Amino acid sequence: MTQHELRDGAPVYGNYINGQFVPTASGETFEVRNPADRDEIVAHMAKGTADDVNSAIEAAEEAFKSWSRTGALQRANILYKAADLLVQRANEIGRDLTREEGKTIKEGIGETLRAANIMRYYAGETLQSNGDVYPSANPTTMLYSIREPLGVVGMITPWNFPIAIPVWKVAPALAFGNTIVFKPASAAPLCTMHMVQALEDAGLPAGVVNVVTGPAGAVGDAIVNDPRVVAISFTGSADVGGHIRALAAARGAKVQLELGGKNPAIVLADADMQHAAQQVMAGAMNATGQKCTATSRAIVDRRIASDFTAMLQERISKLVVGDPLDEATQMGPLIDDASADRVVREIEAARQSGAEFVMGGERPEALAGGAFITPSLFTNVTSDSRMGQEEFFGPLLGVIPVDDMDEAIAVANSVKYGLSASIFTSDLGTAMRFVREIHAGMVHVNSETAGAEYQLPFGGYKASSSYSREQGKAAVEFYTQTKTVFMDPPTPA
Ligand code: NAD
Questions:
Q1: DSSP label of 167
Q2: Does 191 participate in catalysis according to the annotation?
Q3: How far apart are CA 200 and CA 89, in angstroms?
Q4: Angle CA(187)–CA(419)–CA(408) in degrees, nearest 5?
Q5: Mutation to probe ligand 1, out of 53, 111, 156 (largest number of atoms < 8 A from CB)
Q6: Residue of the nearest CA to atom 23 in ligand 1?
């Protein structure tokens, strides 16, 4: 493993280019701070530039020549070995994940182990069929299609799943023979470095994966605008996704966008209310509500709305907010103070707009060293309010009472997003109607909105996605292109 110089007790990382951690030409760095304790510096990262991106793309282009011709089993074995290393290092990586992102240590270690499983899944995919054979109009022609890698792929990721999201992009791209230039979010870039270290230690050749950290505009746009980067996989907010879509479209690059959500959970009067309350709370509050698939709207049959709100309140008030490295903590801080302050402002605006405040929204004095906020619950939220429409990306849940299933579906579908959605009911016909009528890419019956499994397509409808999907077999579509082959004998028979 590479030993990194320490400054103020924290490791100093260069960009990872052509198999080496190298400083930027200017030598400039930026600090990654622990959101639970803003006095703690977790790492110093390189403040990358467009020149660094250029070097990374050059390395990736060169490495593509051999990596794209590397045998499938060799690619698989590197991914299997890197997965084993992630498992061996899960406690250390999970701890760093918690220190840079703020989710609880249980969630941090769990995410690292999930990343290892994603690597294993794509190691297995390298040996799956990569084409189809067809009958031809001409009986002596062998007609088939074969999937080939794209080339250099650019990747830009958010901070909220700092190891799972990098791995669910990098693992399939590598499995199918691509090389990579990667920019992680500046708030939580350390886990991406743990990922590349595991890949390097597993034998990944130099230049196959390159990471440039630093300013979103300078580094991100340099990746997206470079014609040598043939495809871009982006996960993040709808606004930045729109900007990337425009840049990629202008030069005809393949692009995949996984964006925000405003995910509903419909709770009907025939649901198991205790189960629904537990699931809706978990969907809203796990990972401090900072999941694209988090539940932020509980759309509840008016007849049970008051009882259901009380059940939620009882559960939410028991959540232990505090140091995420403490095993007893159930909710850590938000990613930074600006996010916590933004959530406080949204709570105030919701109160002003007439939604009924139930609890939460405090910045606890005892936790003043970090970006902590207590989880919030509102009821009698109207669907056309900001709380009914906008992604807040924090531990906030709004209950929207409705008269019947028609109104529940209409409200659920009334937002610009369509990532994930749930219904809680004991009626099979109602559940099937929900699956048919909901505009969402991922649909749950009697479970929370945030459950995802890596063997399945992941992505949304409407503004949540770009009609492409990640993970599972869907990744083959994005990270490969199809060649159709007509094979005839040298001399016609
Ligand atoms: P963000 O859009 O602010 O940033 C995402 C990434 O884009 C970061 O690496 C950032 O540095 C980079 N970026 C910002 N401006 C850029 C520019 N001009 N050019 C190129 N790159 C640029 O999002 P965030 O705050 O990091 O993450 C939260 C958002 O991500 C939420 O909206 C959430 O819903 C979404 N998200 C979606 C999914 C999904 O799979 N659908 C998963 C996780 C998070």
A1: H
A2: no
A3: 14
A4: 130
A5: 156
A6: 236
Ordered by where they begin, the domains of the chain are 6-259+465-482 (3.40.605.10), 263-445 (3.40.309.10)
| 447-464 pLDDT per residue, tens | 999 988 999 999 999 999
Which one of 111, 258, 391, 470 is the catalytic residue? Answer: 258
> What angle (nearest 5°) sits at the alpha carbon of residue 82, between those of residues 81 and 88?
90
φ, ψ for residue 307 (rounded to 5)?
-65, -40
Which position among 111, 191, 200, 292 bears the catalytic label? 292
pLDDT above 80 (res 493):
no
- Looking at ligand 1, which atom is closest to the CA of residue 470? 40
Per the confidence metrics, is the pTM higher than 0.85?
yes
Is 159 touching ligand 1 by the criterion CB < 6 Å? Answer: yes
**Is the distance from the beta carbon of residue 158 to the nearest atom of ligand 1 less than 6 Å?**
yes
Task: Give the pLDDT band (50/70/90) at residue 467.
Answer: confident
Ligand 1 in contact with 372 (CB < 6 A)?
A: no
**What is the overall mean pLDDT for the chain?**
97
Determine the Cα–Cα distance for residues 208 and 206; give it in Å rounded to an integer.
6
Q: How far is the CA of 359 from the centre of ligand 1 (A)?
A: 29
Burial of 338 (0-12, 13-18, 19+ CB in 10 A): exposed
Contact residues for 182 (Cβ-Cβ < 8 A; gap 6+): 154, 155, 156, 157, 166, 169, 170, 192, 209, 210, 211, 212
Q: What is the rounded distance in angstroms from the CA atom of residue 392 to the CA atom of residue 377?
A: 13
Say what percent of the chain tops pLDDT 70: 100
For residue 279, the CA-to-ligand 1 centroid distance in Å is: 26
Q: Which atom of ligand 1 is nearest to the CA of 215?
A: 11
Dihedral Cα 337, 340, 346, 352, nearest 10 deg: -90
Is the distance from CB of 350 to CB of 398 less than 8 angstroms?
yes
For this structure, is 437 an active site residue?
A: no
Give yes or no for residue 200 CB within 6 A of ligand 1: no
Q: State both tokens at 310.
A: 């009380």
53 Cα: distance to centroid of ligand 1 (angstroms): 19
Summarised one tens digit per residue, pLDDT across range 161-211 is 999 999 999 999 999 999 999 999 999 999 999 999 999 999 999 999 999
β-bridge mates for residue 376, sequence order: 396
Predicted confidence (pLDDT) at residue 215 exceeds the cutoff of 80: yes
- How many angstroms separate the alpha carbon of residue 392 from the centre of ligand 1? 14
